[in-house]
Write a structure and sequence with these properties.
Layout lengths: L3 E11 L2 H13 L5 E13 L2 E14 L4 H11 L7 E9 H10 L21
Antiparallel strand pairs: 1-3, 1-4, 2-3
């Protein structure tokens, strides 16, 4: 399988694509995330005694494991919901992807590396 390393992810849900883009842009500008994936989802949940069905946007942000706490803190600070869903974890990825994610979240002093090569134009990070 070759050499692999760890990358972390933080996931949340927001109420609109605009809110998702604002959140993604903010954490990318702050170099807390190397990338963010936005997916439209449908959610059913209980809120204040009612069952609610809503369209939301799931935002999954990839980062270096050492940046998870700062990324979670930023998502909590920027999130538009009163009680946001925020989850995080780590996964094993190929070495070039882990190196890229670590370089892109290294802060202003870190030298950005090129984005991983894509094998197919429809694939996402």
């Amino acid at each position: 399988m070759g050499s692999a390393r760890r990358v972390a992810w933080v996931k949340t849900h927001v109420g609109s694509r605009d809110a998702a883009r604002r959140l993604a842009s903010a954490v990318l500008r702050e170099r807390l995330a190397a990338c963010a994936n936005l997916e439209t989802i449908e959610s059913d949940y209980r809120w204040r005694g009612r069952i609610v069905r809503a369209r939301e946007v799931a935002v999954t942000m990839k980062t270096a494991p050492r940046r998870v706490a700062a990324l979670v803190e930023a998502v909590e600070r920027l999130h538009p919901y009163e009680v946001p869903y925020i989850a995080w974890g780590e996964e094993t990825v190929p070495q070039p992807y882990a190196s890229w994610a670590n370089a892109e979240t290294a802060g202003r002093r870190g030298r950005p590396s090129p984005a991983p090569r894509r094998r197919a134009p429809h694939r996402t990070r």
